[in-house]
Design goal:
Helix content is 21%, strand content 25%. It has 602 residues and is α+β, with helices and mostly antiparallel strands. The strands form 6 sheets. It has a 10-stranded mixed beta sheet, with helices on both faces. Strands 18, 20, 23, 25, 26 and 28 form a 6-stranded mixed beta sheet that branches.
Length: 602
């Protein structure tokens, strides 16, 4: 009887909105504004995602950055990514400075249970790891895109675990379990999906609906109106991306259904958006640009927010908004005090959510940058990276520059871009300095910390290291790569390390090795510390291209399984230095393929 009474009291509190609202944030990876039926795509059905917009508010003009990590860091903090130390998407350039506070920090301090299930992409080791940024539970992967979408090895709170099934289905299930466990407490559940980012890999049942589907709404329709724009739509990749979004929609439906089942629907804030434009030329509603571009199509994202207790269904917001606005908005909606005192670039959007016709909303400028390119968006115009001005109301496809007819506005926005470049440390086109968002594939010079007592396991994937000599990455894109072609004593894998705690560390390697190559002698060195071991067992796992629906891009590694071997234990002293792995004796053709090194403080 007492249990029944407690459940009734809990239900009454939920229905009356007497408790703090839960927050569920759903983030797509590489989905464009045009990848949803709500936005007019007739080739796809996304009823569950659409229901968030129909049951709450949708933003007509919401802008993110052109690629993943910058958008994610801005969403987490409310500050432009260049202020945060985020310059790139891999090799350490994606890390947010440790002195930045995320909205998850604030919610945790306010008593929320916090969890993240999916792709983090703002730092892999402590103090950049999600568990150091306000989240208490983590399932997924900390780096950029992961090259295995079926039966993927995933990280759970610092430890690698095996999984079974399609990665989006698996991580959604982890999120559902988190919601179920914490239904009686206010919770923050962040689900950054992995799709439709490549590799082009989707369950067979989802692919079956699209593999022969005619594509009538194409990228070339709008591009034909623009001069000198090259468009090469790969139709099968479009089909696979749409299949991946439909799979994602089904998983969104599972989360929404769980909230309804637990009677949490009325007082849970649900947010859905994407981190950049589409990862390929496909239908974008006539906009110019794709992922990586600072044009409209590369940076416009859907933003749907539902909170039945507070936001009227069918609300539409016309003023422009951006990823920098989400952290201050969530703080305001939930009544959570923000931690940290660094100035925000974003605005609290809550007045627009509750009064979408608010006439006092001041005009603003929102900036996007990538690869040294910068554009600025106002309520009505965009100045692109080339300095061309467009009326986005009259010409959403950016077909007719108008700076000649509106020179004052063009000068004003040009000056704003120059000032913003200077403030953010982005060199002018043709100038010297940092210029772009990081020096290509170079490894970030900030050292990786090792040996925090509160997080004693430090995973050092190949993506964060540097291959030297003849060693190289398995493919050009570092995020899901491993080291290959380790054939000579002069070859080495190197990580820039800072040991923070004196102690004994267990060193393990995740490797693959042919039987004929067993026997190499490995030396680990860091400062004056040395550790030697031998590859004593073969693990000749095959490549796994069969898990891909379509051949993956040449820049992405075809993955294989890896086995963990213990190299031994070594005493490390505090300080900075290069952690280096090399082979002193190589009896075969190769030492191994190396996926990661892990240091565990005993």
């Amino acid at each position: 009887m007492r249990l029944i009474l407690a459940c009734l009291i809990l239900l009454a509190c939920r229905l009356s909105g007497a408790t703090q609202p839960n927050v569920v944030v759903l983030l797509a990876d590489d989905a464009g504004w045009g990848d949803y039926s709500f936005n007019g795509n007739r080739q796809i059905a996304t009823p569950n995602i659409d229901s968030i917009a129909k049951g709450g508010v949708h933003f007509e003009r919401f802008f993110v950055q052109p690629v993943c990590s910058p958008t994610r860091s801005e969403f987490l903090t409310g500050r432009y990514h260049r202020r945060l130390g985020v310059y790139g998407v891999s090799t350490g350039q994606e890390r947010m400075n440790p002195d930045e506070k995320t909205f998850a920090d604030s919610f945790k301090a306010a008593g929320y249970v916090t969890g993240i299930f999916g792709k983090w992409h703002n730092g892999s080791q402590w103090p950049y790891h999600p568990l150091a940024r306000g989240f208490e539970t983590f399932w997924g992967y900390t780096s950029g895109h992961w090259g295995e979408y079926f039966d993927a090895p995933l990280e759970h709170n610092g430890v690698m675990k095996s999984s079974q099934g399609y990665i989006v289905d698996v991580l959604t299930e982890k999120a559902l379990q988190f919601i179920e466990r914490n239904q009686s407490k206010p919770f923050l559940c962040f689900v950054p999906f992995t799709t439709p980012h490549s590799p082009w890999s989707v369950p067979a049942s989802d692919w079956a609906r699209f593999k022969d589907k005619p594509i009538a709404q194409t990228a070339t329709q709008a591009a034909n109106e623009r001069v000198n724009e090259r468009v090469n739509e790969r139709v099968n990749e479009t089909r696979c991306a749409l299949a991946m979004v439909e799979n994602q929609d089904r998983n969104v439906g599972r989360i929404l259904a769980k909230l309804k089942e637990l009677h949490l629907e009325n007082d849970t804030i649900v947010v859905y958006f994407s981190d950049n434009g589409p990862n390929g030329h496909r239908w974008t509603g006539g906009m110019k640009g794709t992922k990586g571009s600072t044009d409209e199509g590369g940076v416009r994202s859907p933003l749907f927010i539902r909170w039945p207790a507070q936001i009227a269904a069918g609300t539409r917001v016309k003023p422009i908004a951006g990823a920098i606005d989400l952290a201050p908005t969530l703080h305001a909606l939930a009544g959570v005090k923000r931690l940290g005192d660094k100035p925000l670039d974003g605005r609290d959007l809550s007045p627009l959510l509750k009064n979408a016709t608010d006439a006092d909303w001041a005009p603003r400028q929102i900036f996007q940058t990538w690869g040294g390119n910068v554009s600025v968006r106002t309520e009505t115009h965009r100045l692109d990276n080339a300095g061309d001005l467009f009326d986005m109301d009259a010409d959403p496809g950016q077909t007719k520059p108008i700076q000649a007819s509106q020179p004052e506005l063009a000068r004003e926005l040009t000056a704003a871009v120059v000032a913003w470049r200077r403030e953010m440390g982005i060199a002018a086109p043709g100038g010297k300095g940092k210029g772009g968002n990081g020096p290509g594939g170079a490894v970030d010079p900030r050292p990786i910390a090792v040996g925090y007592r509160e997080f004693p396991i430090t995973i050092l994937p190949a993506r964060d290291g540097e291959p030297r000599g003849g060693m190289r990455r398995s493919a050009a894109a570092p995020n899901s790569s491993y080291f290959v072609h380790w054939t000579k004593p002069t070859d080495a894998a190197v990580w820039n390390i800072e040991v923070v705690t004196t102690g004994m560390y267990v060193v393990t390697l995740d490797y693959a090795c042919a039987a004929a190559d067993v026997g190499s002698q490995i030396e680990f060195s860091l400062g004056g510390a040395r550790l030697r071991g031998k590859v004593s067992e073969a693990f000749d796992s095959p490549l796994k291209p069969e898990q891909d629906t379509l051949p993956r891009p040449s820049a992405e590694s075809v993955m294989r399984d890896f086995r963990t071997m213990t190299l031994g234990e070594v005493r490390l002293e505090p300080g900075k230095g290069e952690l280096k792995l090399r082979a002193t004796d190589i009896p075969g053709k190769s030492v191994m393929d190396l996926r990661r090194v892990t240091l565990t403080l005993k």
